[in-house]
Design brief:
The protein has 384 residues and is α/β, with parallel strands linked by helices. The chain folds into 2 domains: 265 residues, Aminopeptidase (3-Layer(aba) Sandwich), CATH 3.40.630.10; 113 residues, Alpha-Beta Plaits, CATH 3.30.70. The chain is 34% helix and 26% strand. The longest helix is centred in the last third of the chain and has 22 residues. The structure holds nickel (II) ion (NI). Nickel (II) ion (NI) binds next to loops.
Length: 384
């Protein structure tokens, strides 16, 4: 079967058999088997990662290519032959496509092994969707040892097929999480004077948190603070003793990240103190910002331009989304790009009807393979 057919076959198998973060046991067994069929050396990582290793005959730089492989806790509502066979679990972000693309790259590179000068490491990474994420585990187990460059991509339904999005510097944000517990004093709804109303205080905190970005962060510095959940109270005539808030904060720099955390704490404690309540604030850091290296972007841009043409390499604005590809880029230079994949009927990523244009996968394979040769033919080393 030609590669395009195989890509669809791999992708559809994975799409029909999705597994959640850190539970990708069948997925990794399948990927390992496919790699072995191609004659690619494999190594399993704890708990559900797979690495493929292709070494050329000649020495040279080592390039790592990474795909994430996990699905989401979501019911697939598409009406297609290849819809998810697992109730409540679905590949709604395109990670099935990422794994298929990396298998495709493995096949091409294994066939062209004789042309390789150096090594290629194919990282099939579990659990991108669930912080602390699978990238940290891959790195802990030596997944980046000896690696000079790392490249990765995300299929993107917002960019047309045969186009890519690529930019230098920070492209995705620090994606962090906060929770606030407001401790008031419960009582009867008819006797507010004897209580401390945690619902009212929480409401004030929600409103005031909106001043963090609008008043404390520099206007030209992108950031977001969103309260995603509020829970408190049990009855119409009961003043709630406790109310819980949960949300996310996004930033690009370390300074802004700390500033937002400081303001969340000051606002919460300040408002609680003003009303005689207590509070507990927890700021939990998630994935750091994805920062593409200049040279990594140049390499990937050259590779992409050869495949789709220079004019179709777009430069999107940074996104406040998060990605644990950032951990690799903290260790090794490289770049992460968006691969255009708008289907006939587009739904947002993480939507129960999400799908992508499968013809994008072959383009992804070509770009990744080309990136490997760009690095190795120029003998790019990191000690520039
Ligand atoms: Ni994703």
């Amino acid at each position: 079967m030609e590669l395009k057919g195989k890509l669809v076959q791999w992708r559809r198998y994975l799409h029909q058999n999705p597994e959640l973060s850190f539970e990708e046991f069948k997925t990794s067994a399948y990927l390992k088997n496919e790699l072995q069929v191609m004659g690619v050396e494999t190594r399993m990582l704890e708990p559900t990662g797979v690495i493929g290793i292709i070494a050329g005959d000649m020495p040279g730089p080592t390039v790592a290519l990474r795909a994430d492989i996990d699905a989401l806790p979501l019911q697939d509502e598409k009406r297609v032959s290849y819809k998810s066979r697992v109730a409540g679990v679905m590949h709604a972000c395109g990670h099935d496509g990422h794994a298929a693309i990396l298998l495709g790259a493995a096949q091409v590179l294994a066939e062209r092994r004789g042309e390789l000068t150096g090594k290629v490491i194919l990282i099939f990474q579990p659990a991108e969707e669930k912080p602390p994420g699978g990238a940290v585990k891959v790195i802990e187990q030596g997944g980046l040892e000896g690696v000079d460059w790392v490249f990765g991509l995300h299929l993107w339904s917002g960019i047309p097929v045969e186009h890519v999005g690529l930019a230098a510097g920070p492209v995705m944000a620090n994606a962090d999480e906060f929770s606030i517990k407001v401790l008031g004093r419960g009582g009867h709804g008819s006797m507010p004077q004897d209580s401390v109303d945690s619902v009212l205080i929480a409401a004030e905190i929600v409103t005031c948190l909106q001043t963090v970005v609008s008043r404390s962060v520099r206007p030209l510095d992108p950031a977001a603070v969103s309260v995603g959940a509020i829970n408190g109270g049990t009855g119409f005539n009961i003043i709630a003793q406790e109310t819980f808030l949960k949300g996310t904060y996004r930033s690009f720099s370390e300074g802004t990240r700390s500033l937002i955390e400081q303001r969340i704490r000051e606002i919460s404690h300040g408002i609680c103190a003003a009303h005689g309540a207590k509070c507990q604030v927890d700021c939990r850091r998630g994935y750091p910002a994805v920062v593409n290296s200049e040279r990594g972007v140049e390499i990937l841009r050259a590779a992409a331009a050869r495949v789709v043409g220079e004019k179709r390499v777009l430069e999107p604005e940074p996104s406040l989304g998060g990605e644990d590809f950032s951990y690799y880029l903290q260790k090794v230079p490289g770049a992460f790009m968006y691969l255009g994949a708008t289907p006939v009927q587009a739904f947002p990523h993480h939507h129960p009807n999400f799908d992508f244009a499968e013809e994008a996968m072959a383009i992804g394979v070509e770009i990744l393979v080309q990136a490997v040769f760009e690095v190795q033919q120029k003998q790019e080393n990191t000690d520039r």
